[in-house]
Task: inverse folding
């Protein structure tokens, strides 16, 4: 009898623990990170529910203050989406809602991390949905392994049609009110024989540089010199995890190190990894919620080692 009661008690405890985790993970929260280079940058993160938008569970927001951000870009809002894998778990209604959400967020630019489709017949629709997001500074993209394995020419044609800037081992400049930042993109980061030199090597260390790479591994595999922030996807946050803390399967050479969220490479360059939106192999997510990322840039000033934003 005692064993039965103990078993029921353990089941109840587990049930309410899971409910508690689900509740608190759905609530808006803010967290400040200790910067490994406190004289260069600081980062704060918050998240909020994306209820009302199908297939996107949350918006994860970062406030990134860096000394190289020009005053003209203080407050600039950059959206980042990756791994739509249309049509997987993401279907037509969800795709329309992603366009609506990204427009509702009133972004200054949209950045795309690749793995857009699950079949060539879906390429026009998914790229048209992303092209329908209106931003004053434009839309910039890199491709993922799915995109290089199939439908590459279709993707190029549709991106050109939609005015999306594809960055394949090249950089583009965003200009605003006399200031500028640089967005660089990696071509097929899994082919290090061809792409083992970062496209940021020739850039100025005085510019604020964001590097787009489909996989976060690239930031550790090669020197990403002159990069101030890396944005990546590919991992899906593990897609199926144990309370978001451990993923049995993760497509990274570095295991859990680059699972999701804010991480750092060995040179302390910050790497933001999104869970993405769609799924691969199995159309299920567990404690790895689909998300859109928003990064607000801030001008960072350090006076007598006291950090503040302008």
Result:
């Amino acid at each position: 009898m005692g064993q039965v009661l103990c078993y029921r008690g353990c089941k109840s405890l587990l049930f309410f623990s899971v409910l508690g985790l689900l509740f608190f993970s759905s609530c808006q929260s803010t967290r400040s990170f200790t910067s490994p280079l406190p004289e260069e940058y600081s980062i704060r993160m918050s998240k909020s529910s994306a209820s009302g938008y199908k297939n996107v569970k949350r918006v994860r927001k970062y406030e990134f203050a860096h000394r190289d951000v020009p005053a003209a870009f203080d407050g600039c809002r950059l959206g980042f989406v990756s791994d739509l894998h249309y049509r997987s778990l993401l279907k037509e209604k969800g795709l329309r809602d992603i366009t609506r959400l990204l427009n509702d967020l009133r972004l200054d630019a949209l950045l795309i991390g690749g793995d857009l489709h699950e079949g060539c017949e879906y390429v026009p629709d998914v790229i048209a949905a992303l092209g329908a997001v209106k931003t004053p500074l434009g839309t910039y993209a890199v491709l993922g392994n799915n995109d290089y394995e199939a439908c590459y020419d279709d993707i190029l044609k549709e991106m050109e049609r939609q005015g999306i800037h594809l960055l394949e081992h090249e950089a583009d400049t965003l200009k605003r009110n006399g200031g500028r930042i640089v967005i660089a993109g990696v071509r097929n980061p899994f082919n290090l024989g061809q792409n083992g030199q970062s496209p940021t090597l020739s850039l100025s260390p005085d510019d604020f540089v964001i590097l787009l790479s489909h996989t976060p591994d690239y930031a550790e595999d090669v020197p990403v010199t002159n990069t101030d922030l890396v944005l990546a996807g590919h991992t899906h946050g593990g897609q199926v995890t144990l309370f978001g803390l451990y993923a049995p399967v993760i497509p990274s050479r570095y295991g859990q190190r680059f699972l999701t969220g804010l991480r750092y490479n060995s040179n302390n360059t910050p790497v933001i990894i999104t869970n993405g939106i769609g799924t691969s192999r199995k159309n299920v997510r567990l404690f790895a919620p689909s998300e859109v990322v928003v990064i607000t840039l801030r001008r960072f000033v350090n006076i007598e080692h006291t950090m503040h934003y302008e």
In short: Residues 79 and 129 are 15 Å apart (CA to CA). The first strand starts at residue 29 and ends at 33. Helices lie at 2-26, 92-104, 123-131, 145-149, 152-162, 192-195, 218-221.
